[in-house]
């Protein structure tokens, strides 16, 4: 991996709510996000001299996390409390697409993508811990994350992959031959094949990442996959993951009760479909913490955060 370059912030935009966890940009460069109180927001004029505009599009009644603009004009939402949702951006109506799989409630939907054949793929981070105890899953290293598929017209998702370490961000390859899944608890990106001789199989895509991968996003088939790093690697945590299950459970009981405060180190990566890192941007001692998402808007990067009450607008790197 190349030596990292600076992640340079240019503007901080408050959104009137806490935790804009995922950010996605539409074709006009406007950014959509969801906040802790259930609102779906659209942010406009983030990168120009004009005053930014924050517009409420809908309310999910839960806790929206990963977002995806569907080709039919709706917005797909992974809601940590309600499951996989569809939001009509014109009328604000919210519809539940799936809230269970094989009779088990979807506890912690995380990120979602829609492919050209109408299939919707989404991740579940943990079957054991809810969102407000997410750190428990990272510490215990449960490996209960999942990748699921909802076929066109169906309301019953199927499980494609199990045993993932806090399955999180999701993005397709440019030709839709595979999906890239972020495994936050394993510091890696995993590839799941959709076509070809290895259809239905998974393999490591990029391992040993310099931080905890969270949401991932790409603007289109020719753009890179942008990977947010929610925090740096923590050597004691790496050591704990190699320990016994009993030791991890004991540490988890402490972790879920202790007050959490993210570090000031943030970072993002841009990777291509061959698994090569094209950009690695970092900032130490950042005032904007816990970057859980990143997207491109014009010639800037927009960062989301589970922790902050707004988004950060940063310089995008020069193309390589």
TrEMBL record:
<dbReference type="Pfam" id="PF03088">
    <property type="entry name" value="Str_synth"/>
</dbReference>
<dbReference type="InterPro" id="IPR018119">
    <property type="entry name" value="Strictosidine_synth_cons-reg"/>
</dbReference>
<feature type="domain" description="Strictosidine synthase conserved region">
    <location>
        <begin position="116"/>
        <end position="196"/>
    </location>
</feature>
<keyword id="KW-0325">Glycoprotein</keyword>
<keyword id="KW-0597">Phosphoprotein</keyword>
<dbReference type="Pfam" id="PF20067">
    <property type="entry name" value="SSL_N"/>
</dbReference>
<protein>
    <submittedName>
        <fullName>SMP-30/gluconolactonase/LRE family protein</fullName>
    </submittedName>
</protein>
<comment type="similarity">
    <text>Belongs to the strictosidine synthase family.</text>
</comment>
<dbReference type="InterPro" id="IPR011042">
    <property type="entry name" value="6-blade_b-propeller_TolB-like"/>
</dbReference>
């Amino acid at each position: 991996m190349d030596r990292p370059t600076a992640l340079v912030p240019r503007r901080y935009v408050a959104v009137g709510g806490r935790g804009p966890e995922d950010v996605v940009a539409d074709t006009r460069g406007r950014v959509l996000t969801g906040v802790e109180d259930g609102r779906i927001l659209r942010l406009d004029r983030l990168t120009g001299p004009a005053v930014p505009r924050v517009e409420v599009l809908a309310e999910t009644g839960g806790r929206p996390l990963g977002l995806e603009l569907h080709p039919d004009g709706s917005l797909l939402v992974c809601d940590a409390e309600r499951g996989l949702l569809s939001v009509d951006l014109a009328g604000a109506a919210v519809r539940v697409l799936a809230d269970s799989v094989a009779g088990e409630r979807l506890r912690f939907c995380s990120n979602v993508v829609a492919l050209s054949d109408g299939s919707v793929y989404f991740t579940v981070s943990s079957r054991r811990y809810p969102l407000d105890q997410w750190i428990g899953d990272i510490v215990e290293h449960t490996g209960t994350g999942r990748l699921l598929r909802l076929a066109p017209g169906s309301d019953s998702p199927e499980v494609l992959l199990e045993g993932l370490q806090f399955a999180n961000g999701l993005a397709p390859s440019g030709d839709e031959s595979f999906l890239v899944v972020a495994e936050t608890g394993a510091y890696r990106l995993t590839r799941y094949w959709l076509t070809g001789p290895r259809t239905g199989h998974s393999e490591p895509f990029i391992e040993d990442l310099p931080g905890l991968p969270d949401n991932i996003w790409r603007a289109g088939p020719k753009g890179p996959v942008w990977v947010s790093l929610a925090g740096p690697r923590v050597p004691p945590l790496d050591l704990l993951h190699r320990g016994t299950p009993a030791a991890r459970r004991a540490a988890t009981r402490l972790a879920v009760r202790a007050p959490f405060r993210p570090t000031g180190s943030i970072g993002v990566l841009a990777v291509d479909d061959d698994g090569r890192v094209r950009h690695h941007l970092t900032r130490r001692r950042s005032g904007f913490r816990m970057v859980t998402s990143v997207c491109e808007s014009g010639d800037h990067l927009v960062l989301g955060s589970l922790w902050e009450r707004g988004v950060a607008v940063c310089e995008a790197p020069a193309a390589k």
